[in-house]
Amino acid sequence: MRFVDEFRDPEIITRTCEEIRRLADPGRHYRIMEVCGGHTHAIYRFGLKDVLPPNIEFIHGPGCPVCVLPMGRIDDGLELGKQDGVIFAAFGDMMRVPGAHGSPLERKAAGMDVRIVYSPSDALKLARANPDKHVMFFAIGFETTAPSTALTLMRARAEGIRNFSVFCNHVTIIPALRAILDSPDMRLDAFVGPGHVSTVIGCRPYEWIARDEGRPIVVSGFEPLDLLQSVVMLLRQMQDGRTEVENQYARVVPWEGNRAALAAMAEVFELRPFFEWRGLGFISQSALRIRDAYADWDAERIFDVPGIRVTDPKAAQCGEVLKGVLKPVQCKLFGRECTPEHPIGALMVSSEGSCAAYYNYEHRKAAAASLAPV
Amino acid sequence: MCLAIPGRIVELVEDLPHLAMVEVTGVRRRVDLGLLQDDMPGPGDWVLIHVGFAMSRISESGAEEQMRTLRMLGEDHAAMEEVRGYGLAPEE
User: Fold this and answer.
1) What is the pLDDT of residue A4?
2) Predicted structure pTM score
3) Interface touch B56/A92, C-beta < 8 Å
4) Which is the CATH superfamily of the domain at A71-173+257-302?
5) Which part of chain A is CATH 3.40.50.11740?
6) Which residues of chain A neighbour B87 with C-beta distances below 8 Å?
7) Which residues on chain A are in Cβ contact (under 8 Å) with B1?
8) Across residues A92-102, what is the average pLDDT?
9) Alpha helices, DSSP H only, in chain B?
10) pLDDT of A40 higher than 90
11) Cα(A218)–Cα(A214) distance, rounded to whole angstroms?
């Protein structure tokens, strides 16, 4: 294993790998979806594929918020942001994501007022500091991030700051998992549940996956040992014929989640009837919009949203990769037209996107090996 | 963006009780504690920070583990860039 000497206790890692081999039925192929983009990154970074038996396969799930955002939403946001007197504020992760007419960074180079913020509250601060401008925060993220946006909007309302709005693209993980399980071309045996989303929502929202869908799910931490222990827990469930929600990451994730964070989300947001996900299409009740009480801070109501819809470049197969039907390397553009330096699809932009993770670790390793003297 | 960064609360900000000065490997920034109001942490407590907001309380050993995880993932620099970028200003 690649970073083995950095591991806290290589012996435990070795023993855990042995246990995985013991538990895995050699006559069976296990397809385990890790939901969270952070897990995808960790799996490639630590080369976990190399230590698992070949019949255990990780399928990379939809848990990278940058990756699942349809290009049209980026273009909508940029159209609103380019208006006179508007400052477009977004997290750094969004800056290189291509829209149909360039990324936010390219628009900035062309003269648009685009600012990177590290926190939604910094976007609000920008509004306080620029009373003659309107600051629009381009909000993305799952339940990990949505409570922070909610609290920022509550503070904006309490302080009566009127030159601030949110263009809300927050999404929720459960409906996406439902869509994946409903998809006829998906065959999954088990799930590694997201770590930080679960600090907010807790473990109960996953119970239907175990109860109704008959799939084990283990909420996991991000260290190699966490992920390997989660695989052990999943294999044990499958061996025993159990399907349960288990929490491997209890040192951070409370079973009930974070009530204050859920309350902030419920105060500010409500479910949209439907929302488009890149690669997964329209999913009902899968995203958040701003409630009427906060309409004065909702960019979609303050401004006319063009409602741009952009289909992904035909040759790009982001959707199939996002659903785990294709491996990144099986896409026709992978490593040729589409690279982390020149991304075409969003999966290549974020370090949590499966294409970028695959490119940075597997593809570069293979390229280096092919150059090595024989 | 999806980083969870461990930090130790140094002090609560006077007159703004939802804000705390938090130290992350020597860098001090203000962090919002509003999402932990049900179980408000105090000086000396460790928290996991995401986009400028404390998300959960963790133990000191949990904090060390989390920092090591970030290092192993090669994301420690991005995490510190994020922390330094928080605009809620050091105590000036």
Assistant:
1) 43
2) 0.93
3) no
4) HypD, alpha/beta domain 2 (3.40.50.11740)
5) 71-173+257-302
6) 117-119, 121-122, 125-126
7) 65-66, 91-93, 140-141, 145
8) 90
9) 60-72, 76-85
10) yes
11) 13
CATH classification number, B5-85, choose in 3.30.470.10, 2.30.30.140, 3.40.30.10, 3.40.50.300: 2.30.30.140
Classified as helix, coil or strand, A270 is: strand
Flag whether pLDDT at A200 surpasses 50.
yes
A253 three-state secondary structure: coil
Asked if the interface predicted TM-score (ipTM) of this complex is over 0.95, the answer is: no
Q: Work out the minimum CA distance from B54 to partner chain A, whole angstroms.
A: 9
Class of domain A5-63+177-247: alpha beta
CA-to-CA distance for A141 and B53, rounded, in angstroms? Answer: 14
- pLDDT, residue A3, reads 42
Number of A to B CB contacts under 8 A, please give it. 125
A210-236 pLDDT tens trace: 999 999 999 999 999 999 999 999 999
Task: Show residues of chain A in contact with B4, CB under 8 Å.
Answer: 144, 195-196, 199, 252
Alpha carbon distances (Å) from A122 to A97, B19, B33: 21, 13, 15
At position A248, the amino acid (one-letter code) is Q
Whether residue B90 is predicted with pLDDT greater than 50 in this model: the reply is: no
Q: Range with the lowest mean pLDDT among A228-242, A244-258, A305-319?
A: A305-319
Q: Which helix (H) or strand (E) holds A206?
A: none
Residue B18 carries which side chain, given as an amino acid letter? H
- Taking alpha carbons only, the member of A360, A311, A307 closest to residue A335 is A360
Say yes or no for a CB contact (<8 Å) between A118 and B51: yes
Q: Which of A7, A58, A6, A16 lies closest to A36, judged by CA? A: A58
Tokens representing A77? 């946001």
Per the CB < 8 A criterion, the answer to whether A290 and A153 are in contact is yes
Res. A368 pLDDT band, cuts 50 70 90: confident
Size of chain B, expressed as the number of residues it contains: 92
| Residue A346: CB atoms within 10 Å | 29
Q: Please report, in angstroms and rounded to a whole number, the separation of the first and last CA atoms in chain A.
A: 22
* Cross-chain Cβ contact A199/B59 below 8 Å: no
Instruction: Convert the pLDDT of each residue in A326-359 to its tens digit.
Output: 889 999 999 999 998 888 887 888 878 899 999 9
The label of the residue with tokens 């994301």 reads B75
Domain with CATH 3.40.50.11750 in chain A: 5-63+177-247
Q: Answer whether B2's CB lies under 8 Å from A38's CB.
A: yes
